[in-house]
Amino acid sequence: MSKLTPDQKAHVEKWLDILENGMHDQGQGYLKVLHSGVPHYCCLGVAAEAVCGKQLLQREQVPYSNRTIMGYDAEFEDGVMVRSTMGLGPKEKKQLGLDKDIEPHELEKIEKLTGLTGYSAGGDRESVCVQMNDEVGLSFEEIAKVFKEMGWNE
């Protein structure tokens, strides 16, 4: 298993502490979405804003809904956002060690801890986070626990 650098470890520990503190409402499908003005975060949205210092900006207002979808690294044309990042960028993934590939020996443990099945080696830790948050519906606290049990905070 590849180990984190001291800087990566500090960023991961900060992120996991924030996930465990219960201060952010959890959402699915987007880094951050406003429901009637109240922010809800994917676990990666928490990382983007609270750890990596990215400002998540309005990407789109969903018609006939009280949802506003947020992203970052936005591009604007005539004052209107036309594109933004909906996942972590390469720099942010590296900052948290989420760019590290899943190793073959980790697959069984991931399945046992998360319920994710059919996962294959070669994906990265970010994709496991997305699936834990969005597909399986693990709480932030459960996601932090999986990270620690996998040794991905070391």
**Mean of all residue-level pLDDT scores:** 81
Order of helices and strands: HEEEHEEEHHHH
In whole angstroms, how far apart are the ends? 10 Å
Number of helices: 6
Describe the model.
The protein is α+β, with helices and mostly antiparallel strands. The chain has one domain. Helices cover 40% and strands 21% of the residues. The chain contains six helices and six strands, in the order H-E-E-E-H-E-E-E-H-H-H-H. It has helices at 6-20, 43-51, 90-95, 107-114, 125-136, 140-150; strands at 25-26, 32-35, 38-41, 57-61, 67-77, 80-85. Strands 1, 2, 3, 4, 5 and 6 form a six-stranded mixed sheet that branches. A hairpin with a 2-residue loop joins strand 2 and strand 3 (38-41). Helix 1 packs across helix 2 (43-51). The longest helix has 15 residues, at 6-20. The chain is globular. The mean pLDDT is 81.
Could you outline the blueprint of secondary structure elements for this entry?
Layout: H1 6-20, E1 25-26, E2 32-35, E3 38-41, H2 43-51, E4 57-61, E5 67-77, E6 80-85, H3 90-95, H4 107-114, H5 125-136, H6 140-150
Parallel strand pairs: 1-3
Antiparallel strand pairs: 2-3, 2-5, 4-5, 5-6
Helix pairs in contact: 1-2, 1-6
